[in-house]
Amino acid sequence: MSFTSERLRHVYRQMKTIREFEERLHTEIATGEIPGFTHLYAGQEAVAVGVCEPLTDADYIASTHRGHGHCIAKGCDLTGMMKEIYGRRDGLCKGKGGSMHIADFEKGMLGANAIVGGGPPLAVGAALACRQRGDGTVSVAFGGDGSCNQGTVFEAMNLAVVLKVPAIFVFENNGYSEHTGVSYAVGSKDIAGRARAFGMPAETVDGSDFFAVNEGMRRAIAHAREQGGPAAIEAITTRFYGHFEGDPQRYRAKDEVARHRETMDCLKRFRARMAKDGPLSGAELDAIDQVVVAEVDTAVKAAKASPLPTEADLTTDVYVRY
Amino acid sequence: MPQLSMRDAINQALHQEMARDPRVIVLGEDVSGGAGGSSNEREASGGIFGVTKGLLPKFGAGRVLDTPISESAIVGAAAGAALAGLRPVAELMFADFVGVCMDQIYNQIAKFRYMFGGKSTCPVVIRMAMGAGMNMGAQHSQSIYALLTSVPGLKVVVPSNAYDAKGLMIQAIRDDDPVMFFEHKALYPRKSEVPEEAYTVNFGEANVLREGDDATVVALGRMVVFAEKALDGLAAEGIKCDLIDPRTTSPLDRRTILQSVENTGRLIVVDESPPRCSVASDIAAMVASEGFESLQAPVELVTTPHAPVPFSPGLERSYVPGPQKIADAIRRSLKGRR
To answer: Of the candidates A95, A131, A162, which has its C-beta nearest B68's C-beta?
Structure first.
């Protein structure tokens, strides 16, 4: 797959936006101004962007509790997201969802999901709608290594094979199910192998390499469209922060994150690739960095200045009509 | 007007709505039955209760989907398809199986619209057979509508007859909110007059089956049939009561119940489920807090005991509140009347 310079700038900008969004949240959460639980996606950007790059607004994704990266990669509005995370009335979900429940149906983003394993059955249903429409669209179920131990995910994979729907299961193996290591919690150690056992093609890719993820995703989409059935991708990745913000991470070796930031940073990897093969120059990428930092800063300022929900909002949006 | 069983009335509703709206699909275990079997009989059952019979030959395997035994995936896929623009009717077979897929019902379906700030609709219908009386034991006989009535975001329907079942099912499919549809197994063969054409019965509108000034009887599902029997017997004693079938427990037609109690001063609630945190106790609490001045006697709750549904036929018969227990409760309520 060869990309235009413009497309590569878009890809880098999205990955950098996710990184900056999360790094900035890490700082802002420390001030105590952001309520609740936040799970940062920093470190996994190449997965979300590699997977969502070939998708359009007509394709669906079902996300996870660690969903900010998926939202940004699928095109959700940055300021709307930030306002939602701050619990503001004009946030993407009117402040009723928060970090773990951001959704944007116009973008085919079916929602972040705070129940591990909650999303894949939904993605299979959306894939069924894709199949009914017959327009070549696909539906992606994001999940972590933790989700691969949930029965709902097994059920969803089997149903997708049985019904032959264009669902793509993306397992982001970041090494930890909350505080418990994959080497302990995943009996077979081989998540892609589990997907294959259900009767779909599955491959393991380097989740720190945008191009590796993207190529895997393109093969999965081609399979879904041509064979009319699901496929799976296991992306080996890492998270640069804890399970949630405030997690002291005593379960990780002291130098693990520092090592991973050296060897598994998708932004560094992308820059190295550009330095070697082009076409983007370091200066061009630096310029993107500056734009992104300013954009996230604007989003944070807008969120802080936004109105809070009122008590009148408490019982609206429960039903369409009741 | 043609007489139809409740089974056939719901079947007719599914046929008519699938013909009207190509977005309507049906999925569940054995909804056609026979996929992958050695007889090559593609529609071997049409659902174990026959409610989905005839849909596959008419609408094809693209819209009538037999699924594996995977309740979470069935309900979750129905929900995801609904978010993506279809109008799925998922069958759970037995209401007891809600326990297997509760997350998809109460954490997902019920909460989407609120969590997402009103931007989503999830027009899914979940059909399930409930109720004791067929010696199916503790895991195939429960009437667990109270469990789902307590969850904001869900609508809950409990029809008592064929006419209502058809109109409520068509309303459920056309409704933009998620609807939990409870069908009492013992009511499937019961016939009543059902118009051929499609019609809807509004949610939140109770049906007043009988009128009388002596007491207010509220009953749901099969209990409506038993309450009618009880009232038939009491007519000889000159006792006449309002008999109210709420038809939906969420939304609940509070006004019709409160207005009736205002007139009669006495309330008997009949509910085929254990008494604690039940629809019966919910209605009793509502009348106690909003209609206390009207009450002239303690509210009578006619429920099952606080126990699972037993297997042995005699034991199961005494478990279910029957006409005798209902009549006794009405008499108790009227005792000491001036």
So the answer is: A162
User: Can you point out the beta strands (E) in chain B?
Assistant: 3-5, 24-28, 64-66, 87-94, 125-130, 155-157, 179-184, 191-193, 207-213, 215-219, 241-245, 248-250, 267-270, 300-302
Q: What are A121-162's pLDDT values in tens digits?
A: 999 999 999 999 999 999 999 999 999 999 999 999 999 999
Q: Which residues of B touch A313 (CB under 8 A)?
A: none
Residue A321 lies in a domain: no
The model's pLDDT over A159-180, given as tens digits with 9 standing for 90+, comes to 999 999 999 999 999 999 999 9
Chain B contacts in chain A segment 246-285 (CB below 8 A): none
CB contact under 8 A, B73 and A318: no
Taking the C-alpha atoms of residue A266 and residue A206, their distance in angstroms, rounded to an integer, is 10
Question: Is residue A320, in this structure, part of any structural domain at all?
Answer: no
Number of domains in chain A: 1
Structural domain contains residue A268: yes
Domain CATH code at residue A189: 3.40.50.970
**pTM, rounded to two decimals:** 0.96
Is the preceding omega at residue B2 within 30 degrees of 0, hence cis? no
Would you call A320 and B88 a contact, using CB atoms and an 8 Å cutoff? no
- What ranges do the domains of chain B cover? 3-193, 207-334
Spatial neighbors of B84 by CB under 8 A, at least 6 apart, are A60, A110, A125, A126, A128, A129, A130, A139
Which residues from B are below 8 Å from A322, CB to CB? Answer: 155, 177, 204, 251
pLDDT for residue A259: 97
CATH topology of domain B3-193: Rossmann fold (3.40.50)
Task: Please give the residue of chain B at the shortest CA–CA distance from A96.
Answer: B115
Instruction: State the maximum Cα–Cα separation within chain B, in Å, rounded to a whole number.
Output: 71
Question: Amino acid letter at A25?
Answer: L
Give A163's contacts in chain B (Cβ within 8 Å).
Answer: 65, 67, 77
B207-334 adopts what CATH topology?
Answer: Rossmann fold (3.40.50)
Catalytic center residues of B? 140
Residue A318 lies in a domain: no
- The ipTM value here is 0.94
